[in-house]
Amino acid sequence: MQQALIAMSHSPLLEHTNPPEDVKAAVEAAFDHVRAFAKDFNPDLVVNFGPDHYNGFFYDLMPPFCVGYEALGTGDYDSWDGPINVPTNEAEKLAQYIIDQDIDTAISRKMEVDHGAVQPMEIIFGGLDTVPVIPIFVNSVARPFTKVSRVRKFGQAVGEYFKDSDKKVLFIGSGGLSHDPPVPQIATATEEQRAFLTDGRKPTPEARAARQANTINTAIKFAAGEADIMDLNPEWDRAFLEVCKSGNVEGFDAYTADEMDAVAGHSSHEVRTWVAAYSALRACGEYEVDYEFYKPIKEYIAGFGVTTAVLKK
Ligand SMILES: O=C(O)CCc1cccc(O)c1O
Ligand SMILES: [Fe+2]
């Protein structure tokens, strides 16, 4: 088996809020599972589809996709802060292949990736300086959004590139499922927020701390039933997981940005990373989801899903 997949939610609140013990234990067991899965698969390379939350990508230049040739962590919420082990030559060849399939992508020789992209690898491998990784940004917060069918085709192109590779490749998707954390949106932003969304790189320590405190306070209120963010939507989450399990990745095409905003929250778009990862794996062959964990967890502001998938023999 040359390709495998881990698609999982992330939340910077893992270390900052306190769900009931049984919930924490269940999440920890899911993390143990993905760690064991990755260890067993023993990838030569990870292709990491990750979102960003205005730490690395801003409205000064917002691409739908970006392949990182070289990358570093932004360290927000104490996430990976420093260089990332990217095989530049392989990333260059991958981007050329994607473009040759008529799918345009941005590239970066200095891509900045935030908690949303790095958290699964921190959990699974203990850092981003171990297994070589090609980080791929999939815009999941900043309108305008590409159609989900485009994300599927992008993922498919990535998968095709690795289909006959002699390397063992693990596709990771990070984010989702339904959730609506307090990330400003350009359409409703104040003047100050607009400035941040457009040009907010390298915040002062005070600005970063204030942003993080706001997220943590919102999560605590949300768990107490007092926050004015959208509720989680377990039904929507379960339906999305069913599409993942069906193996019919064209099923993702029915999702639209407006509907997702309306029923699953403004950060539900992070499932685009799952769409890319599942479509990449599907391009390598028929797959089966061999592990699924799901729980709506208000303390983490996340419909929290963890899945692994392998190719059918
Ligand atoms: O402050 C931010 O940028 C949002 C943090 C955040 C919170 C809950 C779930 C997430 O997926 C997430 O990213
Ligand atoms: Fe996120």
From TrEMBL:
It is an enzyme of class 1 (oxidoreductase). Its cofactor is Fe(2+). It catalyses: 3-(2,3-dihydroxyphenyl)propanoate + O2 = (2Z,4E)-2-hydroxy-6-oxonona-2,4-dienedioate + H(+); (2E)-3-(2,3-dihydroxyphenyl)prop-2-enoate + O2 = (2Z,4E,7E)-2-hydroxy-6-oxonona-2,4,7-trienedioate + H(+). The active site is at residues 115, 179. One of its GO terms (biological process) is 3-phenylpropionate catabolic process. It holds the Pfam family LigB. GO terms for molecular function: 3-carboxyethylcatechol 2,3-dioxygenase activity; ferrous iron binding. Residues 6-304 form the Extradiol ring-cleavage dioxygenase class III enzyme subunit B domain. Keywords: Aromatic hydrocarbons catabolism, Dioxygenase, Iron, Oxidoreductase. Its EC number is 1.13.11.16. Pathway: Aromatic compound metabolism; 3-phenylpropanoate degradation. It comes from the Bacteria. Belongs to the LigB/MhpB extradiol dioxygenase family. Homotetramer. Catalyzes the non-heme iron(II)-dependent oxidative cleavage of 2,3-dihydroxyphenylpropionic acid and 2,3-dihydroxicinnamic acid into 2-hydroxy-6-ketononadienedioate and 2-hydroxy-6-ketononatrienedioate, respectively. This is 2,3-dihydroxyphenylpropionate/2,3-dihydroxicinnamic acid 1,2-dioxygenase. It comes from Paeniglutamicibacter gangotriensis Lz1y.
